[in-house]
Amino acid sequence: MGKLLEWMPIVKDALHKTAVAVNILCLLHVTNAHLFSVVKLVGPSMLPAFNNGNFVLSERITSRSGKVRSGDAVIIRSPEDPTKVVAKRVKGVGGDVVSYVVDLNKSDEQRTVVWPPEDFRLIRKYKVM
Predict the structure, then answer these.
(1) Alpha-carbon distance 23 to 129, whole Å?
(2) Are 16 and 43 a contacting pair, CB within 8 Å?
(3) What pLDDT is recorded for position 122?
(4) Is residue 88 a contact partner of residue 79, using CB atoms and an 8 Å limit?
(5) What SS3 string covers the chain?
(6) 60 close to 30: Cβ distance less than 8 angstroms
(7) pLDDT for position 48
(8) Low-confidence stretches of the chain (pLDDT beneath 70)
(9) CA distance 69 to 71
(10) In the beta sheet, which residues pair with residue 43?
(11) Which of 25, 47, 84, 92 could form a disulfide with 96 if both were Cys (CB 3.0 to 4.6 A apart)?
């Protein structure tokens, strides 16, 4: 019984430190999942706004509140490879009138469209690590 009492302060201290570490990890998880996260951009496709290797703070509140606007840079899951995340620039949101070149390689033909409500389109793919 005496040996057990000797270990009690050590066990209590270890449990307290473990509880503090778990609380910090939970806070980091909630912050990363719901508020913001830090991402590293790789590639030159969004120059001059973002340079290759820039770290950016990506906040997650604007997209949930529906306040994404044309010209905003957004971080999304890649439609081609769901294991990757990409940064893109919003081309248009619901109700915007947007003109674009149909095929840069073949002609200068342009089309103008009105994005459907509750929809947005993205341009300028940018890999994120």
Answers:
(1) 27
(2) no
(3) 55
(4) no
(5) CHHHHHHHHHHHHHHHHHHHHHHHHHHHHHHHHHHEEEEEEECCCCCCCCCCCCEEEEECHHHHHCCCCCCCEEEEECCCCCCCEEEEEEEEECCCEEEEECCCCCCCCEEEEECCCCCEEEEEEEEEC
(6) no
(7) 82
(8) 1, 45, 118-129
(9) 6
(10) none
(11) 92
Q: Which amino acid appears at position 13 of this protein? A: D
Catalytic residue list: 45, 88
Residue 26: its pLDDT value, please? 96
User: So what's the pLDDT on residue 125?
Assistant: 39
Give the pLDDT score at 83.
79
Measured distance CA(71)–CA(50) in Å, rounded: 13
pTM, two decimal places: 0.57
Instruction: Tell me what pLDDT residue 58 has.
Output: 86
- pLDDT for the residue numbered 87: 80
Structure tokens at 94: 């619901």
The label of the residue with tokens 């996260």 reads 37
**CA 47 – CA 53 distance, rounded (Å):** 11
